Structure formats: C-alpha cells, structure tokens
Amino acid sequence: MTEDDLKSRCLAKAFDELDSGRISELSLRAIARDLDVSHQAPYRHFKSKDDLLTALSCECFKHFSEHLNARTRGENEWEGLRLMGLAYIRYAVSYPHRYRLMFNEHHNGFALTGEALKQAQHSFLLLRDQLGLIAKLNQSAQHIDPQADAMFIWSSLHGLVSLLENPLTDKLPVRESVLKNLVDHVLDRIGTGIQPRSDA
C-alpha cells in the first residue's frame, strides 16, 4: 500500500463513520485497526483526530461545491439562484452528518484552516457570484449587494435546514400544508426579498 493509498483509505473510513453518525467514536487508532495497519501509520498523514476532521471537512466542502455546481442552471439567472438554494437544501437533507460537520466546526472543537477554509469560502463565493451575475445582467437589480444578500440567503437556508431536521418542527401549531410547502415558501420569500423593487 502506498502512502497516497493509505491517506485515501483513512479518509474513506472516516467518511464511513461520519455518514453512519459515528463521528464521535472516530479515532486514528480505530482507523488503523480497521485498515489492518500499525497504529502509528495514520499519524504519518494526520497529526491528530482534529487534523483528520479538518481534512474531512475540506472534502465535505469540495463535495458540497460540486453539488451546487452540478445543479440545473435554469432558464435565467433568477431561476438559477432558486435552483442553487434548492440544491443547498437537498445536500443538507441528503448528507446531514456532513452538513453538521461543515457548519459546526467550533462546536466540534476544531477550526478550519488552509485548504479546508479555502473550500468553505468557495462554496459561499458560488452564491455571491450568482448574485453578482444577476446584478450585472439586470438594470433593475442594481440594489442587490452580492455580499450582504449572499449572507442573507445563506443564513435563511441554514435556519431552514435547522428547522427541517428538528423533530419539534412537526409539532408546531401550524397547518400541515405549511410544513409540506415550507421549502418552496422560504425560497419564494427569499426571491421576493431580492427581486427588483417596484420603484426601481
């Protein structure tokens, strides 16, 4: 086994643990045992569990960005923005443990640095650049602030994801139809918030 193979296998095993919801049980010694290598072998690539989690987060953000980029583009830049929001939600729902790792670094006790931070920033820049494209191509959308509005959308989607995965949401005193159409409603409201103003 080459060193590149060992590193890839360590990350693959870490992904298995993450996707199975067992990330808290993850350890470099356990990975070494499962891969049938010496307990010191993984330390040639990862200094600690936190180092492995940072590398894992980097790969998660890469996957997240690829998912956003692979979305259907839509017939125009406005529809493309909505489809990006939908892709964001779908990723969070499809890969809940990866999503939590990506966006709860401080809670997990490690910090994103280097390439991991770069990949996290890239996923945000995809949204900012889409808003910049809208402002560039639409004279009536000059009120859009790509950075500020990207933060508005990002925070709205993050809050929506939190509601979708919280069991309390299903017990709130709201109509069943509200919960059923929650994603579409939030995306519609986001669109309303940044669409061209009537007095523009």
UniProtKB/TrEMBL annotation:
<keyword id="KW-0804">Transcription</keyword>
<dbReference type="InterPro" id="IPR009057">
    <property type="entry name" value="Homeodomain-like_sf"/>
</dbReference>
<dbReference type="InterPro" id="IPR025996">
    <property type="entry name" value="MT1864/Rv1816-like_C"/>
</dbReference>
<dbReference type="InterPro" id="IPR001647">
    <property type="entry name" value="HTH_TetR"/>
</dbReference>
<dbReference type="Pfam" id="PF13305">
    <property type="entry name" value="TetR_C_33"/>
</dbReference>
<feature type="DNA-binding region" description="H-T-H motif">
    <location>
        <begin position="27"/>
        <end position="46"/>
    </location>
</feature>
<dbReference type="InterPro" id="IPR050109">
    <property type="entry name" value="HTH-type_TetR-like_transc_reg"/>
</dbReference>
<feature type="domain" description="HTH tetR-type">
    <location>
        <begin position="4"/>
        <end position="64"/>
    </location>
</feature>
<keyword id="KW-0805">Transcription regulation</keyword>
<protein>
    <submittedName>
        <fullName>TetR/AcrR family transcriptional regulator</fullName>
    </submittedName>
</protein>
<dbReference type="InterPro" id="IPR036271">
    <property type="entry name" value="Tet_transcr_reg_TetR-rel_C_sf"/>
</dbReference>
<keyword id="KW-0238">DNA-binding</keyword>
<dbReference type="Pfam" id="PF00440">
    <property type="entry name" value="TetR_N"/>
</dbReference>
